[in-house]
């Protein structure tokens, strides 16, 4: 996925075209994301008791990933993303305009690879 949560992106299509925001949430499978404070829609809420008096609430609506471009943290331009492999085989995103790394080397994710190996070997017990 070219765009990740926390990236700065520029909206290239739609009513908020040209505006820049930070990716708040992303659904890579759906190809959608939410940019903080952008692509707001007005939601009409029905009153639900004391805590929710109802009214109109502005909420970020999901955008298609294809409607945004990554903003390079170095040259501040909306750019296409390229990839570069380092010696250890790690993949980093690079800005195609200024060729600098978008992902900071060394700031690797500390996601532990969990191997879920549920052995569902059913013992075929044929107890007659
Ligand atoms: Zn750049």
Protein topology:
Blueprint: E1 8-11, E2 20-27, E3 32-35, E4 40-45, E5 55-60, E6 63-64, E7 68-71, E8 78-79, E9 81-85, E10 91-95
Antiparallel strand pairs: 1-2, 1-7, 2-3, 3-6, 4-5, 7-8, 9-10
The structure holds zinc ion (ZN).
In short:
By secondary structure, the protein is mainly beta. The protein has strands at residues 8-11, 20-27, 32-35, 40-45, 55-60, 63-64, 68-71, 78-79, 81-85, 91-95.
Oligomerization category of the chains in this entry:
single chain
Structural class, from helix and strand content?
mainly beta
Note the beta-strand portion.
Answer: 35-45%
CATH fold label of the largest domain = SH3 type barrels
Question: Which descriptors apply to this entry?
Answer:
single chain, 128 residues, mainly beta, SH3 type barrels, 2 domains, 6-stranded antiparallel beta sheet, two-stranded antiparallel ribbon, 0% helix, elongated, binds zinc ion
